[in-house]
């Protein structure tokens, strides 16, 4: 999937195999709507305010509080880093960050990390 990032930079993001399968089926079944996964009213790209309104709508419907496009992105990147399966350089590339320092905010320890470190001091 190709995304447009800050500074009009385009990058290609890989999608999970299950997502690729569902999208392949969906694209085959839906009418031709252009090149966008979620086209706007006139077939063009959704703008940021349209995306924000959609997220707000589903936040209200779900009853979950504090959801925003930024929170969804931050949560995804934090989970990638915290899974310990991916190094920081890979997560930076996935996020479209040109500097590792930008991605490093996702590796800041939380209270649970600090407690686990303190608890491990007495482990044999």
Strand and helix layout:
Layout: E1 2-4, E2 10-12, H1 17-29, H2 48-62, H3 69-82, H4 88-95, H5 100-103, H6 111-120
Antiparallel strand pairs: 1-2
What does this structure look like?
- By secondary structure, the chain is mostly helical.
- It has six helices and two strands, in the order ββαααααα.
- 52% of the residues lie in helices and 5% in strands.
- The protein has a two-stranded antiparallel sheet.
- Strand 1 and strand 2 form a beta hairpin.
- The longest helix is centred in the middle third of the chain and has 15 residues.
- It is elongated, with a radius of gyration of 19 Å.
- The model has no long low-confidence stretch (mean pLDDT 86).
Keywords:
mainly alpha, 2 strands, 124 residues, two-stranded antiparallel ribbon
Estimated radius of gyration: 19 Å
Give the H and E element order.
EEHHHHHH
- End-to-end Cα distance, whole Å, is 47 Å
Shape: elongated
* Residues in helices, as a percent range: 40-55%
Biggest beta sheet attributes: 2 strands, antiparallel
Bin the strand percentage. under 5%
How many β strands by DSSP?
Answer: 2
User: What is the residue-mean pLDDT, rounded to a whole number?
Assistant: 86
Number of helices: 6
Task: Record the strand order, biggest sheet.
Answer: 1-2
Helix/strand structural class: mainly alpha
- Low-pLDDT parts are none
């Amino acid at each position: 999937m190709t995304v447009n990032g800050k500074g009009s930079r385009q990058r290609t993001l890989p999608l999970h195999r299950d997502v690729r399968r569902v999208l392949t089926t969906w694209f085959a079944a839906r009418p031709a709507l252009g090149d966008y996964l979620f086209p706007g009213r006139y077939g063009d790209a959704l703008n940021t305010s349209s995306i924000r309104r959609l997220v707000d709508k589903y936040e209200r419907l779900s009853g979950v509080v504090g959801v925003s496009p930024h929170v969804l992105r931050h949560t995804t990147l934090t989970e990638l880093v915290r899974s310990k399966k991916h190094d920081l350089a890979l997560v930076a590339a996935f996020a479209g960050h040109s500097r590792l320092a930008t991605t490093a905010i996702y590796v800041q320890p939380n209270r649970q990390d600090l407690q686990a470190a303190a608890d491990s001091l007495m482990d044999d």
